[in-house]
Amino acid sequence: MSEGILPKAYAFDEVESYWYDFWEKHGYFHADERSSKPPFCIVIPPPNVTGQLHMGHALNNTLQDILSRYKRLKGFEVLWLPGTDHAGIATQNVVERQLAAEGLNRYELGRDAFQERVWTWKAKYGGIIINQLKRLGASCDWERERFTMDEGLSRAVREVFVKLYEEGLIYRGKRMINWCPRCMTALANIEVDGEETDGFLYHLKYPLLDGTGALVVATTRPETMLGDTAVAVHPEDSRYAAYVGRKVLLPVMKREIPVIADAYVDREFGTGALKVTPAHDFNDFELARKHGLQLVQVIAEDGRMTEEAGTYAGMDRYECRRKILKELEHGGFLVKVENYHHRVGHCYRCKSVVEPMQSLQWFVSTRPLADRAMKAVRDGSTAIVPAKWEKDYFIWLENLEDWCVSRQIWWGHRIPAWYCRDCGELIVAREEPRECSMCKGTRLEQDSDVLDTWFSSGLWPFSTLGWPDRTPELDKFYPTSVLVTAFDILFFWVARMMMMGIHAMHEVPFREVYIHALVRDAQGQKMSKSKGNVIDPLVMMERYGTDAFRFTLAAFAVQGRDVKLSEERIEGYKHFVNKIWNAARLLLMNLQGEASLEEIPSKPVQLMHRWILSRLQRVVGEVDSALENYHFNQYANVLYQFLWREYCDWYLEMIKPDLYGEDEAAGRLAKSISVRVLEQILVLLHPVMPFVTEEIYQKLPGITGSIMKASYPAVRPEWIDSEAERAMEIIMGVVSGIRNIRGEMNVPPATRVEAVCLCENSAAKELLDAHAVTVIDLGRLSELKVGIAGEMQKPAQAAGAVIPGVEVHVVLKDILDFESESKRLRKELAKLEKEFGITRMKLSNEDFLGKAPPEVIEKEREKSGRLGEKIEKLSRQSGLIDGLRASAAAGE
Fold it and tell me: 'HIGH' region: where is this motif (predicted)?
């Protein structure tokens, strides 16, 4: 785009679509695997193919894009590799709901036709989130986009499965697993969400077989008693010592079961007597193995009662609960019912309550894999940032049980195992076998299960680069540089990638893992549709522009702290975008007809030029350090403060006399420095605000290429000038003091006032004398008097402020009507104190504190704090005005 004056308003919708298409068309996102540049690689946490862009995606991908664009500017060959996950259970559920609406189910279609239906759905809807990521400005290498079920990744999955099987690290066995009756599949332990639930604790009487008494057990799931095979008590519990070794009669089922002793029993829970249901509880299963107890499965895979449940067979598990409670109550076995708050396992996908049960499944032996994954973090091969997450990582891996990787669904990577129907031989192979390796029979049937989605995504950092082939991409970009992810999938995904990467590649999958927090609402609550506090990133981008939205996310991305987001904050940063635009427009309007700028001297004469160049060098270093250490909020805030406060509010204001004056040489120098500083600011801002920076950059004189091809600014030591920075701090402090006094004293903006500065030393006096014109102009003064403290008297009827080395006094005589101002302040104070009193009464009311929602109470506390600060400020002003009024009355 050609040079020229910027339009008055920034039309972000037009600019964003234009530049994204431009970048993509010119291949600026594509990585060259044969480049000699140092590599930088990020693999995108693959969103589910069913996904829609939400705030978690927006934060995660904004941070990745910042790093990718920053590293390109630093001269790295950047590969940000995108893709989507097939999301086995979630995607199957979506398509099954479509079938149900048509009066069909997957069994009626058959496996092949159902899979075809899912692929059709994927082709039509699976790219929605990819387009939304492009809307966010994600500079991914879309030419390398991958899908966890594409041909290459499927081959990698088979290779890893077979390799682990051959090494004895994958096996098929019957173990206790978590089962989802809705999804009809096994789940890994980590796929079970423990949700806090209000339920009941039922106390049930189990009579002794000899009729001499009874044991009372407590349970939250009375329907499982149908599968009880023992009652357990603690061996040191004196209450039950006489019962151990005897038998009780299981109510309803009338089955004789033993009373056993085991230290596992918690004497403080319930009655201290534990019903043992080995087929439906992980801990009870271990008790059964230890004591040789029978397993009786009374709940089937569909959540209905089995034949072992007797007369309850075929009932839904909750219907059975209601019926059995009635029968227990009728028979005198229900002693009491208590309210009980506890954690209940739910399927992470469909939210159904899971059922622990014994099942024949495929498992990965995780211990050797987990040990190597822990060692890699301990020895620094991979660093986790912030380091506090290392503890959670280690605890989880230290306690990791074998991983159930088989799923009883049809959408996913089918397990590469075949069974011979003639001799029963199991064959695990990379390619489909033609005959049985044992009996040479050809009647082979493939295992119907598919692999856990996390199995394939665990291979993501190397399978996406072409493994098991030794590709140029693999040689160039593996191990990847950093993984950016949320803490909630540290175990789901990060730990699995570490285990798989180290085992398959003999090298860690990434050098660093940056863990960011969650995006919450302004009150710190998790966003949910039920609460009505969800902020839609697409709506925010449409309303305020992508740059403002991205900058907001970065500005609040403090390490280890959740991002508290509100629409007002996004709107606030839209003003920042406009500030950049208006500053650039001001400069470009003064550059009309100038095709080039003059060279900037190594040490300009004027203080303001030396100061801004010095401050720029500091900012370049601070930004570099912040991004290298994943301090995204510091990166954003350093640039915000520098551009808005120092560059726009101070520097541009100070150079206006030169821009509009008659001294051509001074004007040319001001234009050259201001534009070159702006150019470097744009490059620094580009990673977080890619669109507005490119649009402005293209209009600057002498620019011929995209900002994406620019070089990151280098710190120029010759421009660092600490003395200029100290001097400007004094000048800015004096002007700020004058402005604050004017504001607090309610002096009209157009009114010129006299100021007196009393300096501690002659150096400060000489500085202010030399820059009196600047202070007068920026402080809107009629006159500035500068003297040495003790040698010059303080003016009468003046308001003062103190900055390091200088006392600033603004003369208010003949400027304010002290009597009227005193009345105004007293009236405003009375109003605020009344409002403050009401707020304090609320906060001291126990009834309000007990009933009001936490966010309402917090809002009231914030209001109280704000009112207190205002009252304190106005009280000071009122006291000062009263003092000036008394001074005026005394004729001073």
Answer: 47-57
Nearest one of 587, 523, 627, 185 to 362, comparing CA atoms: 185
**Mean pLDDT (whole number) for 617-629:** 97
Q: Which of 5-9, 341-345, 410-414, 856-860 has the lowest mean pLDDT?
A: 856-860
Instruction: Report the predicted TM-score, pTM, of the whole model to 2 decimal places.
Output: 0.87
Residues 559-720: name the CATH superfamily.
Isoleucyl-tRNA Synthetase; Domain 1 (1.10.730.10)
DSSP state of 416: -
- Of the listed ranges 637-646, 690-699, 748-757, 872-881, the one predicted with least confidence: 872-881
Per-residue model confidence as pLDDT tens digits over 160-207: 999 999 999 999 999 999 999 988 899 888 788 889 899 999 999 999
Ordered DSSP codes for 120-176: HHHHHHTTHHHHHHHHTT----GGG-EETTSHHHHHHHHHHHHHHHHTT-EEEEEEE
CATH number of 725-811: 3.30.2320
Q: How many residues in total does the chain contain?
A: 892
Q: Is there a contact between 49 and 505 (Cβ–Cβ < 8 Å)?
A: no
Distance of CA 649 to the CA centre of its chain: 33
Beta bridge partners of 185: 180
CA pair distance 597, 671, nearest whole angstrom: 8
Give the list of residues 6+ apart from residue 233 with CB closer than 8 angstroms, or none: 215, 239, 240, 243, 244, 259, 260, 261, 265, 272, 273, 274
Statement: residue 4 has pLDDT above 80? no
Cα 365 to Cα 353, 397, 437, 491, 500: the distances in Å are: 27, 12, 25, 16, 12
Helix (H) or strand (E) run with residue 875 in it: helix 854-889
What's residue 1's pLDDT? 38
- Strands 444-446 and 417-420 come out as antiparallel
Task: Specify the fold of 185-355.
Answer: Isoleucyl-tRNA Synthetase; domain 2 (3.90.740)
> Is pLDDT above 90 for 878?
no
- Alpha-carbon distance of 665 to 360, in angstroms, equals 85
Q: For residue 278, how many C-alpha atoms fall within 13 Å in the half-sphere facing its CB? A: 18
Domain boundaries of the chain, sorted by first residue: 33-158+461-516, 185-355, 559-720, 725-811, 818-889
pLDDT on residue 827:
78
Note the CATH number of domain 33-158+461-516. 3.40.50.620
